[in-house]
Amino acid sequence: xxxxxxxxxxxxxxxxxxxxxxxxxxxxxxxxxxxxxxxxxxxxxxxxxxxxxxxxxxxxxxxxxxxxxxxxxxxxxxxxxxxxxxxxxxxxxxxxxxxxxxxxxxxxxxxxxxxxxxxxxxxxxxxxxxxxxxxxxxxxxxxxxxxxxxxxxxxxxxxxxxxxxxxxxxxxxxxxxxxxxxxxxxxxxxxxxxxxxxxxxxxxxxxxxxxxxxxxxxxxxxxxxxxxxxxxxxxxxxxxxxxxxxxxxxxxxxxxxxxxxxxxxxxxxxxxxxxxxxxxxxxxxxxxxxxxxxxxxxxxxxxxxxxxxxxxx
Length: 313
What we know:
The protein is mainly beta. The chain has helices at residues 4-38, 273-276; strands at 42-43, 47-51, 59-66, 69-74, 81-86, 92-98, 106-111, 115-120, 133-138, 147-150, 153-159, 177-184, 187-193, 199-205, 210-221, 225-231, 237-242, 247-253, 265-272, 278-284, 289-295, 297-299, 302-304, 307-312.
């Protein structure tokens, strides 16, 4: 039989170990919860369509040009150029420089019946940007040359609900960033990238050049940062993004009347950025087939080139 002194020592050791385990669990529990959250939804297989040219290392928007090629653009700090890229091999076959329009932070591109719309509304540096705009490029102005200049007109805007002067914040902490843009039913629809709330808000703008206040329509808990948007012919909305822990995802919404967030929805997981890169661009080719573009991703042992992926829902 164990002596009384040894029993007391043993109980003390057990209590000490329980306290250590409790502290350890408290420290790591949030990580397990977040990891579990990242696994919610169905895993979506991505197949590599092509590797992009190094000129598109920071690809942030893609849209269909025709069945064999896409239009692609880079984000802020790069040239004000639309690149037509051949899908089968990634070769850049045309470059259209947008005349007189600086690429302050191009983040998405959308297609309407007669124009392409470039979302120059990225705002992640300090949250203080006020010169937000969408650039309208007419399809009729597109030329056959391999390199040419194309005109664009500005649709300038501020956000409803942000009447006060924007306050400066630390990089990548603002809820007033935006990277998602679609054309639908004669209007432009913007989807914010919110670095702290991980929600997205849906705003609407006219398609004609001018100065406007973007109208707030709805809000959704995206569980991460939205980086691109696309819509199918039948009105299915698809949002692309990644979680704070580096896992890409898609959300699909079945509503087709210009509001989506209360409709039937589904989440798809794409995998870690260390495998698929930083997913930043999206367009839907049909109701079930789409393409995703990623930026060049380099972190420690991981080097993922800028890539176009194909998927089927």
